[in-house]
Design brief:
The complex is a heterodimer of chains A (550) and B (524).
Chain A lengths: L2 E5 H8 L5 H12 E6 L3 E6 L9 H11 L11 E10 L9 E8 L5 H17 L7 E7 L7 E6 L5 E2 L8 E2 H7 L1 H6 L9 E5 L5 E4 L3 E2 L12 E7 L2 H17 L3 E8 L4 E4 L5 E6 H8 L5 H10 L3 E5 L2 E6 L9 H12 L19 H15 L3 E2 L5 E2 L1 H6 L10 E2 L9 E2 L4 H10 L7 E12 L7 E12 L5 H14 L5 E5 L5 E11 L2 E9 L1 H6 L6 E7 L5
Chain B lengths: L2 H7 L2 H12 L3 E2 L1 H7 L5 H14 L2 E14 L1 H9 L2 H12 L1 E3 H8 L3 H13 L3 E7 L5 E7 L1 H6 L5 H8 L6 E2 H4 L6 H9 L5 E13 L1 H9 L6 E2 L4 H6 L6 E2 L18 H15 L3 E2 L5 E3 H4 L20 E3 L8 H13 L14 H4 L2 E3 L4 H10 L5 E10 L11 E10 L5 H14 L5 E5 L5 E11 L4 E11 L1 H4 L8 E7 H9 L12 H6 L4
Parallel strand pairs in B: 8-9, 10-14
Antiparallel strand pairs in B: 1-7, 2-6, 2-7, 3-5, 4-5, 11-13, 14-15, 15-19, 16-17, 17-18, 18-19
Helix pairs in contact in B: 3-4, 6-8, 10-12, 15-22
Classes of the chains: A alpha+beta (550), B alpha+beta (524).
């Protein structure tokens, strides 16, 4: 989640009031954030992905002015009628069909502001833009280009321009190969035959969305007026992002001027900074929150959260500012009432709901087995479920089985879900081989099998497994342990049968059967296995399916 | 220390050492003490001396380096067969003269011993070299016995005395050996100059002296009387216990810690949490770890292009690959909710929902998949359940990340439950976990509204730490399942809590089990 750097002095200027640092550190979290860090002059705060309007210091100041009741209610934004146009060619329809735009005039631009603006863009790309796939933002020096502009798609080698941060002009194809940003975002364009481009009336390139702007329109501290364009695949998301960015600039006293968009089949004008109207029921609010607020109190809470309030009655007419993209449902307004009221003022009350505590059967049997083994002097260990075929099969000298496999493993170490607890226990013994013997360890955990009767085609099975290693570990010892365990679990009708298993010494391995079903295995591990796990002493082990025991 | 108490708790070995020291005029080396007592090994003497030192009854007054001797491989041979020069001398005494050629034959010398014999015979002046003509008139070299040789034939040299006192298996100190060998240092020098005959080790040796307290104690009398340390079945059954005196132990003396079998710290914490839920009247539920994207994400109103669903963050399976979805009507209603809010009163996410994406099989990323699965099957109030289970993320292993960890989730669904009820149940839950200072702060999860994060104040760290997330399930989550009442929900990651409770800096400690650590951690 984005961490926003808040300059204390700049924030106080935007608030129009000096608030002590300590108060801010206490108040900002209660508005909905996590303070990551702070210094004497800066606060680093993490804001949630549902509130991209708080990804700029202007947005934070706007919200804080309400929360601190310096200025409550709707922040109104006026938009000057469009003077410029963007012509959209149908060639972009199948590639990046939408563009929106705005002009911001009279912005006081400093180097610090440019950095903040770039961070803000990147955070919007993350939160709304899905890393530029859905929305890509370009901000330009308006006075360097000549309207109207043209948005179209061209062949990869059709034209050349000087991209930002590169020494020489490149074709669009070359940008994807050579420019660092081109390499980062090539995956968004590679499958198309033409790439989108924004040109001005002189044929100069503003931008090659969603990859890189032209050097021509670079924003510097001499820039006076900004042209903002956003291209993408989702009309709603584009408008959200544009509303958030332009209202933040308006908070810096920029004049926002609309842009006319001439699509082949329609005309649009952006941005539209009018609030949306919603209704909030008073009794629904109180029911959800467990409070007993009057309509006026609710209205006041909403105004603290910078909503506009119209009619106040059994329901409240709410004006949602254009930058609040998180209001899907009435419940979203209820949360804002709660935040405006103050979470710290809500009195905790235990719900009257009666319930009966009930343990899950698999945990009951697991804990019984755990207690018995602890009584036998075993130490419980925990190993990871994620494993790999080398440990699960090769080192155990057993042939590979079909099992739960990861499509996108992060490393070769974790590519499958374990099929047995025994390899993990051997790994644990290996980790501890420098300690005194005897060592007695056990684990209770899940292993995985494929099974078509389940929705997903796989399921976990609860097992218990143990191992004992010392210079005289013997088959009799493990048999005693297994039989003591089963006896103490009050399992009666089981039988031991000799079997063959490549991980164990021939003639020293047995299966436990209940009726005709195999529920476990125990024996003396084969020296080859011990060598594979770098162990030097005789080792015996067992593994029992607990699901068959309850 | 109380002298009377010392006297009562005195170990028989200590008593023997004290008495021996007394006899040796209050001052002696451990070797001397050993010979004076019936103790079998020097170690026992040393151990008793160290106890006595701690009690202030004796003190070490002098430390000196003492040589310890044992036989080397050649020495063993010589001890058995005599030194080569002695073997020659034994023949010379009878024959007066012997030619070089006869040395091997008559004296039984091995070829490598001839030179040694010649050198030492001359060095000890037992024989001299002469050249005399043989029958054919050729002058040949021969050995002839000297006067010294004559005299020496009757007695052992110092080196031989030393040689016969030594052993290969047992070390002897110079203090022991010196009285047995006439010219001890000369003997040592002589044997040392031969290869592999003796081995010498230097060790520090102390001289112990009775302290004033020690003398006082002896004056009080510590005569050896029949005392019992270990009670035996025989003593009990024969009635002997009535007559014997039980030695009093120093109960403050250190005893070794034992290894006990114990539950892993992680299961201890999990059980503590389970117990709290059970005490609060929650039933424990489970759901599969291998889960469909449908239950893990779609049913929880997480849009299909949500960052958490990306291949970067979630572990997708290549086998099994496709899950079966629940009833057509439920799928349809969730699809519509995503697209335009359906009948929930929401505007939805405004995109085209794709059924195939929801069929992807994953390792669940949160245990909220379990509670939502349960709610889908239990739509009528009240529902009060919890679950503890493994969840998975596409993370590399490092000191603060693991690709799998435990989470716990709890829900309460009932008529009329409220946000303030959620505060109530959370406050109680965290209080039972031992956290008194809890702060609820606005939070965000795609499937809850209102949402909150739980901060715990850790006085020792002097700060608030986030330790759980919570909220009321969104209408977009509950209404498609047919649930009409609010669902209070919360969850937290257990490893983080375990690290705080067990003071761990590295999360890997919990999964790469070090037995020494497991054996030494406290039990909750």
């Amino acid at each position: 989640m984005p961490v926003i750097k808040i300059d204390y002095k700049e924030l106080c200027e935007l608030l129009g009031k000096r608030i002590p640092m300590d108060d801010l550190l206490r108040i900002i979290p209660m508005m909905g954030s996590d303070i990551e860090n702070f210094t004497e002059n800066e606060i680093y705060a993490e804001f949630f992905p549902n509130r991209p309007d708080l990804y700029s210091i202007e947005g934070i100041a706007r919200a804080l002015r309400g929360f601190l009741e310096i200025e409550t209610g709707l922040s109104k934004y006026s938009v000057v009628s469009p003077k410029i146009e963007i012509n959209i060619d149908h060639s972009v329809d199948r590639i990046r069909p939408f563009i929106v735009g705005a002009v911001a005039r009279g912005v006081k631009i400093t180097l610090e502001f440019i950095q903040e603006l770039m961070d803000f863009q990147e955070d919007l790309h993350w939160a709304i833009g899905r890393n530029r796939k859905k929305v890509a933002i370009g901000v330009h020096d308006f006075d360097k280009i000549k309207p109207p502009y043209f948005y179209k798609a061209v062949k990869p080698n059709e034209l050349k321009f000087l991209p930002l941060d590169y020494p020489e002009p490149l074709t669009l194809a070359e940008i994807l190969e050579k420019h660092p940003k081109g390499k980062d975002f090539a995956h968004l364009l590679k499958s198309f035959e033409r790439y989108p481009i924004i040109l001005d009336s002189n044929g100069d390139v503003l931008s090659m969305p969603p990859v890189i702007n032209g050097e021509l329109t670079r924003v510097t501290n001499h820039t006076k007026n900004l042209f903002i364009e956003m291209t993408g695949t989702d009309w709603t998301a584009l408008n959200y992002a544009l509303d958030i960015l332009t209202t933040a600039l308006a908070e810096r006293r920029a004049t926002i001027e609309a842009v006319k968009l001439l699509y082949s089949n329609k005309k649009e004008i952006t941005p539209n900074l009018n609030p949306r109207k919603k209704e909030l029921r008073v009794n629904y609010t109180n029911q959800m929150l467990g409070l007993n607020l009057t309509p006026t109190e609710i209205a006041h809470c909403l105004e603290k959260m910078r909503f506009g309030v119209g009619k106040v009655d059994d329901y409240i007419e709410v004006f949602v500012p254009p930058y609040r993209v998180d209001v899907f449902h009435e419940i979203d307004l209820v949360e804002d009432v709660a935040i405006g009221y103050g979470y710290e003022k809500i009195i905790p009350e235990i719900p009257a709901t009666v319930g009966i505590g009930q343990k899950h059967p698999s945990e009951i049997i697991s804990r019984r087995a755990q207690r018995i083994l602890i009584g036998l002097g075993f130490n419980e260990v925990t190993n990871m479920i994620l494993s790999n075929p080398n440990i699960q099969f090769d080192k155990m000298c057993i042939s590979k089985m079909e099992g739960v496999s990861i499509a996108n493993p992060v490393s070769d170490e974790f590519t499958i879900a374990r099929v047995s607890l025994l390899p993990g226990l051997l790994e644990t013994l290996k980790l501890n081989k420098h300690y005194d013997l005897p060592q007695k360890i056990f684990e209770i955990g899940d292993i995985f099998i494929l099974n078509q009767t389940f929705e997903t085609g796989a399921r976990e099975i609860r097992k218990v497994a143990g191992m004992v290693t010392h210079s005289k570990a013997s088959f009799t010892e493990v048999k005693s342990i297994v039989e003591t365990l089963l006896h103490s679990l009050q399992i009666k009708d089981w039988k031991v049968k000799a079997i063959e298993h490549p991980s164990f010494i021939e003639g020293r391995v047995a299966a436990i059967y209940r009726d005709s079903e195999k529920i476990g295995i125990f024996g003396e591990l084969h020296p080859e296995i011990l060598i594979n796990f770098e162990l030097g002493s005789p080792t015996v082990g067992f593994e029992i399916n607990l699901e068959k025991l309850y | 220390m109380d002298l009377e108490k010392i006297r009562e708790e005195i170990h028989p070995h200590e008593r023997k050492v004290l008495l021996a020291l007394n006899k040796l005029r209050g001052q002696a080396t451990p070797d001397q003490i050993l010979t004076e007592t019936d103790l079998k090994e020097l170690v026992s003497v040393m151990r008793a001396c160290s106890w006595l030192q701690k009690k202030g009854l004796i003190e070490a007054i002098e430390e000196k380096i003492v040589r310890f001797f044992r036989l080397g491989s050649e020495g063993v041979k010589y001890q058995k067969n005599n030194l080569p020069e002695r073997r020659v001398l034994n023949v010379l005494v009878k024959e007066r003269k012997i030619s070089f050629d006869d040395l091997t034959k008559k004296c039984g010398l091995e070829s490598n011993e001839i030179n040694i014999a010649l050198i030492w015979l001359q060095r000890k002046r037992w024989a001299e070299l002469v050249y005399e003509p043989d029958e054919s008139g050729v002058r040949i070299a021969a050995l002839k016995i000297t006067d010294v040789g004559e005299r020496s034939a009757r007695s052992k040299g110092s080196d031989e005395e030393l040689l016969s006192s030594l052993s290969q298996t047992e070390e002897k100190s110079e203090n022991e050996l010196e009285p047995e060998v006439q010219y001890f240092e000369l003997a040592v020098e002589q044997l040392k100059s031969r290869k592999n005959v003796i081995q010498i080790v230097r060790r520090t040796s102390r001289t112990f002296k009775l302290t004033e307290t020690g003398n006082k104690l002896l004056n009080l009398g510590i005569e050896v009387t029949e005392e019992i340390s270990q009670l035996t079945p025989e003593i009990i059954q024969t009635g002997a216990w009535k007559k014997v005196k039980f030695r009093k132990y120093d109960v403050a003396a250190p005893a070794p810690l034992l290894h006990l079998g114990r539950a892993h710290p992680l299961t201890q914490i999990i059980d503590q949490i389970r117990e709290i839920f059970l005490e609060m009247g929650f039933a424990e539920i489970k759901s599969p770890i291998v889960e469909s994207a449908f239950w893990n994400f779609d049913a929880l109103f997480q849009p299909q292009d949500h960052p958490a669903r990306e291949m970067m963050d979630t572990l997708y399976l290549s086998q099994p690959k496709t899950a079966r979805l629940p009833s057509e009507s439920l799928v349809e209603s969730i699809a519509k909710t995503h697209e335009n809010g359906g009948t929930t009163g929401s505007i939805g996410w405004g995109y085209k929902w794709n059924k195939e994406i929801s069929k992807q099989v994953i390792l669940r990323t949160h245990t909220t998949a379990t509670t939502i699965h349960h709610l889908a099957e239990h739509t009528q109030p009240p529902v009060k359940v919890f679950c503890v289970g493994k969840v998975f993320r596409r993370e590399r292993v490092d000191f603060k990340h693991l690709p799998e960890f435990y989470q716990v989730d709890g829900i309460v669904m009932d008529k009329g439950v409220t946000f303030s009820n959620l505060f109530g149940v959370l406050k109680e839950f965290y209080r039972k976990m031992g956290f008194e200072q809890v702060r609820f702060r606005p939070g965000y999860f795609p499937y809850t509204e209102p949402s909150l994060e739980i901060d715990i104040f850790f006085p020792e760290k002097g700060k608030w730490l986030e330790l759980g997330g919570s909220g009321i399930f969104r209408p977009e989550v509950t209404l498609p399942l047919g649930i009409e009442y609010p669902v209070l929900a919360w969850g937290l990651s257990i490893e983080r809590l375990a690290m705080l409770k067990f003071g761990l800096e590295d999360i890997r400690t919990l999964y790469f089990c070090d037995l020494e650590w497991l054996r030494s951690t406290h039990i909750l």
